[in-house]
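lol ok so funny story. i was supposed to be doing the assay writeup but got distracted and ended up predicting the structure for this chain instead. priorities right. anyway since i did it might as well share w the group, maybe its usefull for someone
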Amino acid sequence: MSASVNAREVVLDTLLLITRDGEYSHAALGGVLDKYQYLEKRERAFITRVVEGTLERMVEIDYIINRFSKVKTDKMKPVIRTILRSGVYQMKYMDSIPDRAVCSESVKLAAKKGFGSLKGFVNGVLRNIGRNLDAVAYPEEETAYLSVRYSLPEWLAAQWISEYDADTVRRMGEAFFEERPVSIRCNTSAISREKLAQCLRKEGVTVTEDEEVSCALYIEGYDYLTKLEAFQKGWFYVQDISSMETVLRAAPKKGDFVIDVCAAPGGKALHMAELMEGTGQVLARDLTEYKTGLIQENIERSGLCNIKAQRWDARVFDESLKGAADIVVADLPCSGLGVLGRKTDIKYKMTPGMQEQLSGLQREILSVSCGYVKPGGKLLYSTCTVHKKENEENARWFLKSQEDFELLREQQRLPGIHKGDGFYMALFRRKDS
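and the output, tada:
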């Protein structure tokens, strides 16, 4: 490691930003990697893996710590708890690091952070865990076992078992732990997928083509995504395969008018604009200047001219657009439980009460958004969650409350069963008057 930077201290500080201070993991880790981009790739890879891995496995790690510590994790000082968590992750999931090195570095870190009096505690707990790690017994009761094994809050494991079944929860849990290449969508208005793949390979990127979605590629082996020339030129957009397929099923035509009511950062809206080949218009809206700024940044990078970013509250009906849209995209705020493989801390922030509030917000926005759809036009409702109340139950509610709409297609994609993230889509059509 670089002499001026202690990578384990960077890991500790980053985890504290997330678990103690409430920052989102992708934002906290992204900021840290930007700050230390001068470090060697292997050092940044170590920081990334320990931060992401500790968060990903935190329920399991706390279960292990609590079996060997008289002071339970919820009673520990945040710094000590976080040092122990990252230490256990390294011992259990990083075979290249000797247990004695983990213990030694953890003790040094506790002292450096002002907890010298707890060095013996840190050392004792980690050494005891190291000697007995392979013999840790997991809960026998099904919900508790799945909660610990796949590091899910117990309420969430119970919810998924009730909505699906235990085998499906296992498959989703395994999928969230798997490393996946990044999926990108080729900007076909600027370059063909074949030429994009060639350009990326020249930059040293490993590229795989998706066999079913003609605009999709999978990339890995690069250092900084934003430093790739193909990214800077707007030739591709990072987007999950399920999101791409949803837009393709909405099937925008040349000359269509499309409204995306919650568009940031703009992936689906840009895809719509690309498919319309420079014709028609996409109005990409979101609530804040920050979010519309993200959309505008991606519009400018893409070079597309048939899309416009606009600030608007999706809960407020815009009379000037009543019955004007061929397609309305309502990719709405949700519990995000389908993307735990990429945003692991969501499962610790979400609660059943928050899910209930989100379901109500989704219904409110759907009630407004459907008024923009012209007769014969389509409404695309989507979320990145696997929670049925936010998905299938909302679709049933919408059909009952809006009798002039019919359901054309509906799909719930589940991690480990379908490609990509967990994702829901329902495509409705307004009946001809």
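The chain has 18 helices and eleven strands. Residues 352-369 form the longest helix (18 residues).
back to the writeup now i swear
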